[in-house]
């Protein structure tokens, strides 16, 4: 087993300090580049029948990581996804969060955790190499209650598994719901419409025009939302005018050990990604807002449906839906999540 770990600094005038970049690698050619700005995945290069390709979306102009309009690769929070009107009530008090998605709150706010430098260090064990990122957030930051701290550790092993282990807590009661926002294209370029997706979920959440859950849990059977068997992403895409941007519910609670949520496969290259998580569901987003105005690292335009997100977390807007699994964490109670991204060639 030959696991590798390296580090370098990248200097860009747009950033107020150098960006620390870490590269994890295994003996099969799988490599992961991580950055301390946003605790982000900048690149995952994976082997396939057509060689080694970068299977995540990124920017040709690295300065665009500063504004990162598509949230490429970052850890988002304190709450991932949307909170309707950016409002919730807790302990007889109302909270107004930053509204950065029309009238709603998205991915922790315009200046959330994904927009900041995290402290970081790398480490190596006999069976894996990794990087740990930590960050603190003051009471009232983006409207959230309590002084907050989070730790996110990435680790890679020789079996092709990239693990992301999350922990967090605050000194006041409040919602916590973290996730990773990487975009995957297992072909390395072009669109993902011919790639096959499987989602281990019988239900999904109905949403309103602002993509806020209505509270209704709908069966996938007989609809374009049914991915219980492998299906090309583009096969029934036209049934959803805006594309896929919904939450699939695998179970009604978190679990102690990661279970399979999703499988993505590119038939041409044979690259396969399995997502396992402790979380009850996954947001599948089909890259609907990529508009071709920016270029990826290889110089290709970042086109609509050029990549998909598979974001494991608790249901969006759960803080406003008593029937959903709760994102509310008591003061000093630990939050935990573990997700595995397992790469292989079939």
UniProtKB/TrEMBL annotation:
Which residues are noted in the entry as beta-D-galactose-binding? Answer: 81-82, 181-183, 245
From the UniProt record, list the reaction(s) this protein catalyses.
Answer: alpha-D-glucose = beta-D-glucose
Record-linked CDD domains: galactose_mutarotase_like
Q: InterPro entries from the xrefs?
A: Aldose_1-epimerase, Aldose_1/G6P_1-epimerase, Gal_mutarotase_sf_dom, Galactose_mutarotase-like, GH-type_carb-bd
Top-level class of the enzyme under EC nomenclature: isomerase
Catalytic positions are 181, 311
Which EC number(s) are documented for this chain?
5.1.3.3
| Family designation | Belongs to the aldose epimerase family.
Does the keyword tRNA processing feature in the UniProt annotation?
no
| Alphabetic keyword roster | Carbohydrate metabolism, Isomerase
Q: Could you identify this protein by its name?
A: Aldose 1-epimerase
GO annotation terms (biological process): galactose catabolic process via UDP-galactose, Leloir pathway; glucose metabolic process
Claim: Ribonucleoprotein is one of the keywords in the record = no
Domain of life, per UniProt, equals Bacteria
Pathway given for this chain reads: Carbohydrate metabolism; hexose metabolism
MF terms (GO), sorted A to Z: aldose 1-epimerase activity; carbohydrate binding
What stretches pass through the bilayer? Answer: none
């Amino acid at each position: 087993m030959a696991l590798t770990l390296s580090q370098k600094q990248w200097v860009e005038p747009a950033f107020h300090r150098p960006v620390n970049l870490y590269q994890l690698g295994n003996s099969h050619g799988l490599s992961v580049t991580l950055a301390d700005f946003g605790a982000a995945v900048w690149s995952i290069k994976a082997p396939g029948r057509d060689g080694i390709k970068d299977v995540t979306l990124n920017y040709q102009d690295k300065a665009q990581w500063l504004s990162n309009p598509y949230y490429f690769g970052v850890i988002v929070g304190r709450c991932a996804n949307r909170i309707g009107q950016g409002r919730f009530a807790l302990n007889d008090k109302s909270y107004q969060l930053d509204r950065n998605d029309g009238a709603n709150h998205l991915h922790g706010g315009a200046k959330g955790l994904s927009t900041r430098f995290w402290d970081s260090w790398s480490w190596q064990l006999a069976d894996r190499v990794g990087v740990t990122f930590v960050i603190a957030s003051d009471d009232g930051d983006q409207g959230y209650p309590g002084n907050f701290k989070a730790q996110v550790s990435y680790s890679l092993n020789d079996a092709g598994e990239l693990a992301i282990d999350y922990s967090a807590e605050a000194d006041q009661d409040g919602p916590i719901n973290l996730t990773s926002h990487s975009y995957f294209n297992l072909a390395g370029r072009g669109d993902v419409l011919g790639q096959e997706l499987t989602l281990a979920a019988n239900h999904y959440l109905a949403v309103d025009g602002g993509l806020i859950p209505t509270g209704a849990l709908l069966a996938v059977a007989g609809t374009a939302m049914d991915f219980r068997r492998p299906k090309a992403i583009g096969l029934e895409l036209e049934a959803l005018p805006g594309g896929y941007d919904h939450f699939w519910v695998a179970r009604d609670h978190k679990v102690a050990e990661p279970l399979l949520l999703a499988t993505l496969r590119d038939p041409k290259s044979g690259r396969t990604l399995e997502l396992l998580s402790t979380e009850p569901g996954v947001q599948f987003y089909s890259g609907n807002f990529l508009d071709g105005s920016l270029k990826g690292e290889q110089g290709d335009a970042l086109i609509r449906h050029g990549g998909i997100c598979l974001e494991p977390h608790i249901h969006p807007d759960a803080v406003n839906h008593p029937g959903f699994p709760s994102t509310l964490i008591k003061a000093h109670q630990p939050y935990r999540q573990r997700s595995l991204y397992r790469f292989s060639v079939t």
